[in-house]
Amino acid sequence: MGELSKLPNIAAKLEAQLADVGIETFEELKKYGSREAWLRILERDPSA
After folding, report:
1. Handedness of CA 12, 25, 19, 31 (dihedral sign)
2. What's the N-to-C CA distance of the chain in angstroms?
3. Fewest C-beta in 10 Å: which of 9, 13, 27, 30?
4. Residues 6 or more apart from 28 whose CB is under 8 A from it?
5. Would the pTM of this model clear 0.70, i.e. be above it?
6. How many of the other CB atoms lie within 10 Å of CB of 37?
7. What tens-digit pLDDT sequence spans the chain (48 residues)?
8. Alpha helix locations (H) across the chain?
9. What are the φ/ψ torsions at residue 9 (nearest 5 degrees)?
């Protein structure tokens, strides 16, 4: 369990998806925002 899965509404699977697109810390998630993070995940995995 990493840093992100300690945040509300972020389970281990979402944390792994975020890591796959280069977002591994709260600061990175805050920098890109939830919308950009989700778009990056969808680019990599359209079924997400």
Report:
1. positive
2. 21
3. 9
4. 22
5. yes
6. 20
7. 689 999 999 999 999 999 999 999 999 999 999 999 999 999 999 998
8. 12-20, 26-44
9. 65, 15
Name the DSSP letter for residue 25.
S
Tokens of 12: 């281990």
Q: What is the rounded distance in angstroms from the CA atom of residue 12 to the CA atom of residue 3?
A: 10
Q: Is 28 helix (H, G, I), strand (E, B) or coil?
A: helix
- Check the CA dihedral 12-15-17-20 and report its sign: negative
Domain boundaries, the chain: 4-44
| C-alpha pair distances (Å), 35 with each of 1, 5, 38, 40 | 23, 18, 5, 9
